[in-house]
Structure formats: C-alpha cells, structure tokens
Specification:
about 150 residues; 4-stranded antiparallel beta sheet
Length: about 150
Amino acid sequence: MAISPAGDRTASLHGKIIRIYDLETGEILYTVDKYPRAQETFVLCQETEVFVRSRNLPKHRAIEIWQAGELRHTSLGHEGEITALVISPDSQVIATGSADTTIKIWNLETGKLICTFGSHLTWGSHKGGIASLAFSPIAQTLALQQF
C-alpha cells in the first residue's frame, strides 16, 4: 500500500490489480495489473497522477513510471532485487536501492538513468544491500538504510 505525500490518493493491491483511489471521493482513478509472480513495491508522486513501481522477477528487474493509468517508461539497470523506491519531494527524480548494493537516480519525467552510487561512492561507505531510502524535505540529501 502507498499514500501520496499530500494524503489525497492511495494505491493498494487487490488480488491481481493495483487500484489508485482518490481519498476524498473514494473514486478509483485508475488500475494497473500486477505482474504474475513478481515482487512489487510502489509509490505515488506528490502533486500529479504519477505512480511508480518496481518489478522484481528472477532475471528481470525494472521500474515503471505510470501517469493516469498509462505506462510512460520502463527502466532497467539493477542487477539485484530492487528493495527500496522513493520519489523526491520536488517530484523530479526517483531513487532506487537494490540488493546489488547500488543506488540509482532516475529522471521522473523521462525514466532515464541519471547516476549510480556504489558502496564506494557513499558517505560512510555501505557494504550491504539497500533496505530503505528517504529524501530530506528539500531533496538535497538522500539517506539509506542497509540490510
């Protein structure tokens, strides 16, 4: 389950369908099919109808950027399971963390990879996979928790 930062929308899994609701009206805004046998996580964007999900299959890991129920971009890049997913407060970038010990920063509008941080490029030098990520309120700092 996910809730938008503004608290006006929610996304939740119902069987094989992810439903995105308007919390004020209770209306279903759109639905997205869940992939069979895939582990998925998802987040909602601050002000727009953007929904981002990670999709983990044994040999295929991706993030998908959806807008108003339409798939806009599918981005590949992690070698291990995507274990963390967060959208910046300014809705400009997505950060993903993985069991492969990398953090990737993606452009939310285009789905393009901006940069990759490995364990040798982060302050404090992490050694394990990424369990969670969080942006500071002004999106200038990205914090991580490792396994």
